[in-house]
Amino acid sequence: MRLFKILCQMNLKKINNGLLVFNIPNILAFIRLLIAPVMFWIILNPQVFTDMGWHISWNYYIATLLFVIASTTDFFDGYVARELGQITIVGEILDPLADKMLTLAAFLGLMMSGAASAWAIYIIIVRELFITGLRTLSVSEGINVSASMAGKVKTVAQMIAIGFLLMHWPLADVLLWIAVALTVYSGVEYLVGFAKAYKGKL
């Protein structure tokens, strides 16, 4: 572990104010950003695989694999950031942005391919974009709004729903609406937390 820490620290690039941009957690977040559009394209282009003689469902299988890989990087970037002390302002913005890009790409692809309820996806998209903007504002203003348990549960619920929808498994629609409910609840909770923190700063 000590050797791992030394090797990671050798690959840090410092910019103004001591912000660490080129570190392992941020690289993992960039990987998620790259996977998101590829996964989106694969979901909407099953003919690419049928033209090669594969079953039409292969686009969903491959999209699921990419989603699992990307979701795994989300776990590791948080772990590495804590273990190596590489928690940065850039990372605090980039990590949730990459998460949102990944989930929104999956949800949009599923909606456009007819595999998910449009209303459910609209609600999730509006909430995610609004809270992402609010979180970016809070970081830029130096307002600390800690991630709540509801937000973490929401993220897990969304990932499970996406997995079920991609694989066309039973209860996928039920899990999607559970994710919607948790998404709205955690969004309201974050908004209240931001309002209190902002008021306290005045």
From TrEMBL:
GO CC terms of this entry: membrane
Record's protein name: CDP-diacylglycerol--glycerol-3-phosphate 3-phosphatidyltransferase
UniProt-listed Pfam families: CDP-OH_P_transf (PF01066)
Organism: uncultured bacterium pBC1
PROSITE patterns: CDP_ALCOHOL_P_TRANSF
GO MF terms, alphabetically ordered: CDP-diacylglycerol-glycerol-3-phosphate 3-phosphatidyltransferase activity
Gene Ontology terms: biological process: glycerophospholipid biosynthetic process
Subcellular localization: Membrane
EC assignment: 2.7.8.5
